[in-house]
Amino acid sequence: MLPTFLVRRIATGCVYSRAMKKQTLLHLNKRNRASLLFPAFVFCSSIAGAALAQDKGELLFLNNCAECHQRDGKGIPNIYPALAGSEVVRGSAVDVALVMLIGRGEMPSFAGSITYEDMASIINYVRNSWGNSGEEISAQRIEKLR
Ligand code: HEC
């Protein structure tokens, strides 16, 4: 996963370059137009998709987790553990999913209160924010853990 700022920058760049290409394209014949536009479109849509997924995870995290773990993921010492740099969070997406499904200590279970799709977005967000980096998990994989 690319860092958020980079994804946003590339996504914005895509919008600008698309607008600029419109001008240039008026001077190109149809064949050249297609060979330029299609790869640009595929590239831009995949980047924009990644930016949206990251934003969704961030929003869900702010709504469901940040009151305890804080928006910067640093938690509150001796009360709410940091997710930034946490071994559990960096270790395995399945372990994070289990904590969310079962709950732990003071932390409530989220099973039944948010969808598996949203759980996956949150997990992928916390595992790829504040210096953490980890491979993604799908909603289907989480559903199978029940
Ligand atoms: C009401 C406060 C609260 C909320 C809301 C909350 N947590 Fe927690 N969370 C805790 C507490 C307290 C612990 C430590 C539990 C223990 O080990 O006894 C914890 C532990 C964790 C851990 C294990 C971290 C480690 O290093 O051991 C993860 C991962 C985690 N929470 C993720 C989340 C996610 C993701 C959300 C939002 C969906 C969330 N939490 C919402 C209070 C909360």
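The two ends are 27 Å apart (CA to CA).
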